[in-house]
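Re: [ENG-882] Designed sequences occasionally contain unexpected residues at chain ends

Forwarding the minimal case from QA. Structure tokens:
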């Protein structure tokens, strides 16, 4: 048997380096997203929502537009050894405008404006928003962003219970019911999968809510895009889309059918400090 002398192949070395670079690039692209709040943290957020809904109600076309801005402050009361953070949330200001031609026209609300909103819709939502501003909502967030143990301000709960319209609906007032507002807290917090994600990966969160038209299911789809530099910080960019379906309730006064929908949003998450940036 002859033993041939070893002659290094120049391409083999380059190939090995290329593989290592590809692996390193893939490792950099992966991200294990987690909330990492600390006791004593104070965070300020502004949540902007713009909505356009076109619906068919009893064979009539209905179009609703709404814009809403909520300025809020989070105070982290405590964090246990599993990373579950107990949050005290205060809503500092609400600005809201909705146009609903089939339900009394338009309504505008600004908590910094002493003038109460007008019209049937204004009389309904005005007291609810008044009770939300300044009140303390307490809830818990785990490292994956799942929200639990939501406790609304007592003033807000009493306002919802004493609202004649909500009473006539049996409490199924959608987002303006106690259950709806609790779910809204959860929907405002981005959630994450247990596994790490790479660019293009998506995951869903589903919530259900009773409304006058039936059972509404809201599916929120998060899509991880890529890290993005903002003011010198590397933030994880996450696209957000929501989709609604309605299962009509038996004997409902109005039959609601969603004929089209589209939504988009963006979350910028600071994964190093484990908190939402924008």
């Amino acid at each position: 048997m002859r033993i041939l002398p070893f002659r290094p192949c120049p391409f083999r070395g380059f190939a090995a380096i290329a593989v290592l670079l590809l692996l390193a690039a893939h490792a950099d692209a992966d991200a294990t997203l987690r909330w990492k709040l600390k006791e004593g943290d104070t965070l300020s957020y502004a949540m902007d929502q713009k909505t356009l809904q076109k619906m068919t109600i009893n064979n009539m076309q209905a179009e609703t537009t709404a814009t809403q801005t909520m300025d809020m402050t989070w105070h982290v009361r405590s964090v246990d050894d599993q990373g579950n953070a107990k949050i005290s949330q205060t809503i500092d200001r609400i600005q809201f405008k909705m146009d609903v031609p089939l339900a009394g026209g338009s309504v505008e609300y600004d908590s910094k404006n002493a003038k109460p909103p007008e019209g049937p819709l204004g009389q309904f939502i005005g007291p609810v928003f008044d009770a939300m501003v300044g009140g303390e909502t307490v809830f818990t967030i785990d490292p994956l962003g799942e929200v639990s143990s939501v406790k609304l301000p007592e003033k807000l709960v009493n306002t919802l219970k004493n609202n004649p319209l909500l009473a006539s609906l049996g409490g199924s007032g959608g987002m303006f019911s106690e259950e709806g507002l609790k779910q809204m807290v959860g929907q405002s917090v981005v959630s994450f999968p247990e596994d790490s994600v790479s660019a293009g990966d998506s995951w869903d969160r589903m919530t259900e809510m009773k409304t006058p038209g039936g059972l509404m299911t809201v599916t929120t789809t998060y899509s991880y895009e890529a890290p993005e530099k903002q003011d010198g910080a590397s933030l994880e960019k996450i696209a957000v889309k929501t989709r609604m379906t309605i299962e009509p309730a038996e004997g409902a006064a109005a039959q609601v059918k969603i004929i089209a929908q589209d939504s988009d949003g963006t979350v910028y998450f600071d994964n190093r400090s484990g908190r939402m940036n924008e």
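QA comment: On inspection the terminal residues look reasonable. Residues 10-29 form the longest helix (20 residues). Proposing we downgrade this to a documentation issue.
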